Amino acid sequence: MHRLQPHHQLTDRGGVRLELTTTANTSPLAIDVEESTEMRIQRLISENPVVIFSRSSCCMCHVMKKLLSALGVHPTVIELEEEEISALPRAPLQDGNSAGVSITAAPAVFVGGTLVGGLESLVALHVGGHLVPKLVEVGAL
Predict the structure, then answer these.
(1) 57 and 30 within one domain
(2) Do residues 83 and 128 touch, judged by C-beta distance below 8 A?
(3) Domain membership flag for residue 41
(4) What is the pTM of this model?
């Protein structure tokens, strides 16, 4: 089994660039090249207390990260390719008009292995006073 190990580098724009190199060691962010996208996403959700799955250059993901950082949480952020987004776990639509329909959206945030949803759901959880207790419960705070 081959695994890829992430290495972080600071970019000239002040961000962090993730580079992957082959290694025998494993880490929570290691990628098993034989692992399906669905299995990798499920593993990342279960191994990290707060995970955001995003498209690259997603402004909503940036707002999610800022909100969580302001609370003292530093989420794991995974940028997915367009074809990988369909592998995200799906949440049923909340309105009664769309029976059997589910949504998959990026960005999607998971806290304690549970799908919170997108930016709107994360903000609603925070405004309702339920986000911080949930973050404490899962050990992210």
Answers:
(1) no
(2) no
(3) no
(4) 0.68
